[in-house]
Specification:
Largest sheet: 5 strands, antiparallel
Strand content: 5-15%
Number of strands: 7
Helix content: 55-70%
Order of helices and strands: HEEEEHEEHEHHH
Shape: rod-shaped
Number of helices: 6
Structural class: alpha+beta
Oligomer: single chain
Strand order of the largest sheet: 4-3-7-6-5
Length: 281
């Protein structure tokens, strides 16, 4: 595996971790924001409906006439909220216009729900947020008996909001983040590859020069980058090493020449004595 491949693999792995962390964090934050907006819609709708409730000496009275009633939604473009109003016996007093042809949904909203708490549930495999609140007169004190409580005058308001648009927005957000992350990763992969090759050109030149240096060319040296970085330090140190090797070779050559000169006369005399001895024999 080449150096550029290892460098690219390391950088792209780090980039993938950063992109995954950023995408997950952004998805979690936006999903939380959308869920918070949906809950605020229910609270806003409940506040508008509660203003139509009048408390009297004989109990709670629903003052909304049987005409279409709508309030300004804080989320522009969103589907209208579904809501129903029940008396203390569970009888339907009023409902939103978008429920008048949805008997099953109205019946599902009429089921008993936690009072004052936003509940996540499903209706026909569709996610919903519901909010139910029971309004009683201030003078009313709840009894231990369910029968007494059922006979007490009260009004229950139930609101429902389909979470299909929220889930669709979350799904689109997820695919968008995945597409952006993959696109950024691929673009960075190309850029890192090209930048890495360009950055390692001096290393490749040094390797080529080292491969071409011969013993008969002791003056040849590595090219310096002039960038005052680690590569220049490596080249300077390697050139210093070549200088020391050249000096060592020169000292060795001088020693060999001097030794040959010093040994030439004794060897000549010895050869002469050997020849004289051979002739006498």
């Amino acid at each position: 595996m080449s150096l550029i491949t290892r460098f690219s693999f390391l950088m792209l792995t780090l980039l993938a971790v950063v992109l995954c962390g950023f995408s997950l964090t952004l998805y979690w934050w936006i999903s939380g924001y959308l869920s918070h907006e949906a809950e605020e819609r229910l609270q806003f709708g409940l506040a508008n409906l509660q203003r139509r409730v009048i408390e009297g000496e004989d109990g709670i009275r629903w003052s909304l006439p049987r005409t279409d009633f709508s309030f300004e939604d804080p989320t522009p473009g969103a589907d209208p909220l579904c809501w129903i109003v029940l008396d203390h016996r569970g009888k339907l007093l009023e409902q939103s216009a978008n429920l008048r042809r949805k008997a099953n949904l109205t019946k599902w909203l009429s089921t008993k729900r936690p009072n004052g708490a936003i509940e996540k549930s499903e209706f026909q495999d569709t996610p919903w947020l519901t909010l139910s609140i029971s309004i009683r007169p201030s003078w009313f004190e709840p009894k231990d008996s369910d029968e007494e409580e059922r006979k007490s005058p009260a009004i229950t308001i139930v609101l429902g909001d389909s979470q299909v648009p929220v889930r669709a927005a979350q799904r689109n957000l997820a695919w968008t983040l995945i597409g952006l992350s993959v696109g950024i990763w691929l673009l960075c992969a190309l850029c890192i590859r090209k930048i890495g090759k360009r950055a390692l050109i001096p290393v490749a030149r040094m390797a080529q020069v080292v491969n071409e240096i011969q013993a008969l060319e002791p003056e040849q040296r590595l090219p310096t980058t002039g960038t005052f970085d680690e590569l220049q330090c490596l080249g300077d140190n390697f050139n210093d090493l070549l200088d020391r090797l050249r000096e060592s070779f020169e000292r060795q050559s001088r020693f060999t020449g001097e030794a040959a000169h010093q040994l030439r006369t004794p060897l000549t005399a010895l050869l002469g004595q050997v020849e004289v001895a051979l002739r006498k024999s």
